[in-house]
Amino acid sequence: MKSARLLAASLMLALSVPAWAEPPADIGDSVEALRQKIGAVGVSIAIVEDGRTTLARGWGVRKLGESAPVDAETIFQTGSTGKAMTAAALAVLVDQGKIAWDDPVIKHMPWFRMYDPWVTREITIRDLLVHRSGLGLGQGDLMFVPRTYLTRKQTVERVAFLKPKTSFRSAYAYDNILYAVAGQLIEEVTGQRWEDFIREHVLRAGGMKNATSDSEDRFRIPNRSWPHARLSGALRGLGPQQALDERDELGRNGAPAGGLALSADDMAAWLKIQLAHGALPGGGRLFSEEQAKQMWTPVTPMPITELPDSLKPAQPMQQAYALGWQVQDYRGHRIIQHSGGVFGSITRVVMIPDKNVGFAIMMNSEDSGMILGLTYELLDHYLDQPDYGWTTKWQDWFEARLAGGVEFLKQAKASPAKVGPSLKPAGYAGRYRDPWYGDVVIADGAKGLTIDFTSTPRMAGRLKHWQYDSFVTEFDDPAIEPAYVTFALDADGKVTGVTMKPVSMIADFSWDYQDLDLKPAEDKK
């Protein structure tokens, strides 16, 4: 029989070793069954427990209509989950003593400007990452959504013309554009493009051997997933899956906000580093313990979205944004997580620090109900919770949301006022300019009025009269979100300005048409 002292020591040792849970025993069959039921194209999942990869595999295919399977090395576009990697790249520079989180941005980019001169002086590197600058939700995203002619530096220069929606540091509003500023700052400090610095100092240094930060690198990798979406219904998200043109991607000027591609193996390596607070599995560190703490420390409180009763357990009591991560509670545990999405691909990265567990789910389609269902099924598994039927509940919620969006469109189409337009088509034609976006050209031709967003390749189409002096876009590219275009006239019937807003009430926030303030251009360029 053990002595009391030895028994106590044994119990303490047992308690200090994290419980080994293992992934759900039926995960292979259940994910495949769900994928087929929903009609998703491909799925990849990585799970890390106690510093070990316990799952890294794929289901489905890389591209619709082809047989090449998704596996642990298939790279997926991971969207805004890459914000945490841009933060990690900055953490490397903090450890090197080249920057500090609370340095004013203009210390390293003297030419950088925000709309307000006081904010220009005060905004720090930390502020770039935590969505409290005063900009509105997704403000400025049309500078890289859906594509762009702009360089990153040109984009950052145009931030000066983004008029804030709230006062500085007073409210949370998710943005992408200031991560583009962070990427430009990395280049200003190091002399390396964001793409090159993050590849060398984060991806390769962290053991992410398949991951890419540059489009051309991604296109050279045979084992890559294609983006897919449902575009043929009344709203995006309805209709059968179709493969998108993988080269028709978001502008690379915004890549520091979410332009990376990773495999399940890469995600496992990233999760190990995060859960080890910057330590590398083979020894050494990617970033220091202090920077790991900084990146997980909540900074900006986030409003909590009210969820229906069926999803209530997923509603946190508190949540906040840290440096590239969202921190919240779930069933009494702290969760570090972030979602990501680009056209045709979605991702979710989640960690439960007190369980030393993390997982990532990547999909090459836009089936958000499936990815959220899998997320909460895995959370409940590792938190030893009973089955709640999350996949069905989330899928039902998204289907109801789409149905509501369709009904809204039906009602809108049925009720326009049969008034207007006030002018002949030629009266609306002209070049209109917004200080941050650039020029939008409206022309009167054989097919009637047309619209062309000149900073964005192939963002053009017809304008169809709606009511009064409002028109609706019919873009040549069906993947572009339609918008209402409204002309303001003076007493003499001359156009004094143009405003826009998305047609759909559930359009992605990155279609920030409402932030445009177009005025007749004074020159002929």
Main β sheet profile = 8 strands, antiparallel
Outline:
globular
In total, the number of domains comes to: 2
Going across the biggest sheet, name each strand in turn: 2-1-12-11-10-9-8-7
The poorly predicted ranges are 1-19
What keywords describe this structure?
Beta-lactamase, 20 strands, 525 residues, signal, CubicO group peptidase, beta-lactamase class C family, Peptidase_S12_Pab87-rel_C, AmpC-like
Folded structure, characterized:
The chain has 525 residues and is α+β, with helices and mostly antiparallel strands. The protein has 2 domains: 39-304 and 312-407, DD-peptidase/beta-lactamase superfamily (Beta-lactamase, 3-Layer(aba) Sandwich), CATH 3.40.710; 425-520, Lipocalin, CATH 2.40.128. Helices cover 29% and strands 21% of the residues. It contains 15 helices and 20 strands. An 8-stranded antiparallel β-sheet has the order 2-1-12-11-10-9-8-7, with helices on both faces. Helix 7 crosses helix 8 (177-190). The longest helix has 25 residues, at 390-414. The chain starts with a helix and ends in a 5-residue tail after the last strand. 44% of the residues are buried.
Provide a brief overview of the structure.
The chain has 2 domains: 39-304 and 312-407, DD-peptidase/beta-lactamase superfamily (Beta-lactamase); 425-520, Beta Barrel (Lipocalin), CATH 2.40.128. The protein is built from 15 helices and 20 strands. The chain has helices at 4-16, 27-38, 83-95, 105-108, 117-122, 125-129, 152-158, 177-190, 194-204, 215-219, 264-275, 289-296, 368-382, 390-414, 425-428, and strands spanning 42-49, 52-60, 76-77, 228-230, 241-243, 261-262, 300-301, 319-321, 326-330, 333-342, 345-352, 357-363, 430-434, 438-445, 448-453, 460-467, 470-475, 483-489, 495-502, 519-520.
